[in-house]
Every structure is written in C-alpha cells, then in structure tokens.
C-alpha cells in the first residue's frame, strides 16, 4: 500500500458567489462539481480543478455563511499550493494578481522551486509553485475554456503546509502509519526550526507535506479563509479497506468507510488535531455529468436526490456576479 499523493484540499468560504468569481474568473480554475455538503445539505460544496477534475487537482470549498475571521495558528493546515507549469508562469501570475489587486508576496524560492505566495479575498493562504523541474507525480491539464492561457494555467495541487506545536507526533503518523518518506528540509523564516518535507508515491510537487513547528503559537481559530482538511490519494476501494484496517489498528478514531459517490473516503485526526482524509481516485466527477457539462447544474448524490427541491430552495446562485 502506498498513497499516491495529494487528492484534494477542502477549505471554508463565507460566500459561495464571491468564491466562485475568484477561483474561476481570476484564477481560471474550472468548477467541475457544484454540489452540497453531504453531511449538511444546506451548504454548498464547490469543487475547482483541472479540465475534468482529476484526483490531485481539486481545491474544494464549503460555504458556511456565518463563518467568522480566521485567527491563524497551530494545529492547522496553514497553506495550500497550486501547481503551474513553469517559472515563466509565475511572472504571468504576478502581473495578473496585481491587475486584480490580489495580495501577494512576490516571487521567491522554496525547497529549490520558484513560488509566489498570495491570499484570496478571504485571506485563504495560497502559493503558486512552479513545476519547472518537477519529476514526480504528473500534473493535470488546465481547462481549455479558462480565461487564463493554458501554458500558464493551474495544473493541480502542490505541497500542503502543516503548522504544529510539536513535530514528532505528526511525523510518526506520516512516516510509520501512512508511509511517507522524509525528503529534506529548508529554512523557515518564521521560526527557529527548519521546515521538514515528507513525500509519498512518486514524490514531487503533487505528493508533499511540509511541516512547520511553531511551539509559541496558539491553536488556530478557523473561519472563512481556513482549511478544513487535506485528502491523500488511494488507488481504489479495496486498498482503502486495508487502510481502514491499519488506521483502526493504530487506535486512531476514524469515520469508517464513507461513500462520497464521486470517491470513497476515510477520515481521521492525527495527534496534533489536523483532519486527514484518504480518498480513492475514482469513480470521478463524470459519474453523473458528462465531462463537457461538469459543474453547470447542481449535482446531488442519489441519496439526496429526493430532497432536491428543498435543497435548491435554500441555495443562492453562485454564477451571478
């Protein structure tokens, strides 16, 4: 058993309409699935990804309309990376972010890669990372109808950063339970200890977790602009069953196997309280919509279909801006 990389990252927004505008019109990602939180159908669950929503390209958002401000801190997924094809793409994005008055830190370098940190309109902490020299997990393919040129478009998720008060507990789960490998380290300008890098599968930008240790920070108070969980890729349901056995043997409280219709999942919290998900690569978002029509209408899994009228009555359109 070996996790194949990052599957998706799920975050929180207070306004689905503004969120849709930012991620489709400014970042040029495709809305591949417009659905609801299956555990609370009163709220949107929006999936932005590459052309067909390949595993490893999905950045998703729950709309929680009363979500307050995020107070950044420990025990958190503190940054999400978005892959772009090359260093030249970062220059394009720097100009585009300036054009739309998006807060950013300018182009820099992290772990031997060119990067461009920025924030969305709600303070979501993001960073473009260049795949110029990537030799690991393959990237996705930007949507041909994106407002962003395909040569510079977002191709998937890059490394996620975890901020924790103590390295050892989370490191043990990553390496001894989930099978990640220690891949190196680099200086952290925000702390006294180096950032530690762990990788899985074929490695590279699509399969890394970066660990930041900041003991002095208080625990993060999540809200709009925070990340809810990170999911890692599992080949299929049979392998997910084996992961369930392993997680249970470790006595880690978990959700058990959950059918999300577009993939199957297993959720658990590691010792620093961060929510991890293991999710299968398939069956995929074209299970109930053709690839060319992804995200155009409200998609509901079969067990919610009988409540469609009630659910739609409580949701506002995201496309009108």
UniProtKB/TrEMBL annotation:
All residue ranges annotated as the VOC domain in the record: 5-131, 156-281
Superkingdom to which the source organism belongs: Bacteria
Signal peptide from the UniProt entry: none
Gene3D superfamilies on file: 2,3-Dihydroxybiphenyl 1,2-Dioxygenase, domain 1
SUPFAM superfamilies in the cross-refs: Glyoxalase/Bleomycin resistance protein/Dihydroxybiphenyl dioxygenase (SSF54593)
PANTHER family: RING-CLEAVING DIOXYGENASE MHQA-RELATED (PTHR36110:SF4), RING-CLEAVING DIOXYGENASE MHQE-RELATED (PTHR36110)
The protein's name: Glyoxalase family protein
């Amino acid at each position: 058993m070996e996790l194949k990389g990052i599957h998706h990252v799920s975050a929180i927004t207070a306004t689905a309409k503004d969120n849709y505008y930012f991620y489709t019109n400014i970042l040029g990602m495709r809305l591949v699935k417009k659905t609801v939180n299956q555990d609370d159908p009163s709220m949107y669950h929006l999936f932005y990804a590459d052309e067909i929503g390949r595993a490893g390209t999905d950045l998703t958002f729950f709309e929680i309309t009363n979500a307050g401000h995020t107070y950044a801190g420990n025990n958190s997924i503190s940054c999400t990376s978005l892959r772009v094809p090359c260093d030249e793409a970062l220059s394009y994005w720097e100009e585009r972010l300036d054009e739309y008055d998006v807060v950013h830190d300018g182009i820099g370098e992290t772990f031997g890669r060119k990067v461009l940190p920025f924030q969305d309109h709600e303070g979501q902490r993001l960073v473009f990372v260049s795949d110029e020299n990537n030799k690991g997990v393959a990237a996705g393919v930007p949507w041909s109808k994106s407002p962003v040129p395909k040569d510079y478009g977002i191709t998937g998720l890059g490394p996620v950063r975890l901020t924790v008060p103590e390295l050892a507990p989370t490191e043990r789960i990553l390496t001894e339970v989930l099978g990640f490998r220690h891949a190196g380290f680099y200086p952290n300008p925000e702390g006294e200890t180096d950032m530690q890098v762990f990788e899985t599968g074929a490695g590279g930008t699509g399969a890394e977790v970066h660990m930041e240790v900041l003991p002095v920070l208080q625990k993060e108070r999540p809200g709009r602009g925070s990340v809810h969980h990170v999911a890692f890729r599992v080949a299929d349901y049979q392998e997910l069953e084996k992961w369930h056995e392993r997680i249970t043997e470790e006595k880690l409280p978990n959700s058990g196997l959950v059918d999300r219709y577009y993939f199957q999942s297993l959720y658990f919290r590691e010792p620093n309280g961060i929510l991890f998900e293991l999710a299968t690569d398939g069956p995929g978002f074209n299970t109930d919509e053709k690839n060319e029509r992804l995200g155009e209408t409200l998609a509901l899994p079969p067990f919610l279909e009988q409540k469609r009228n009630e659910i739609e009555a409580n949701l506002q359109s995201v496309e009108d801006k």
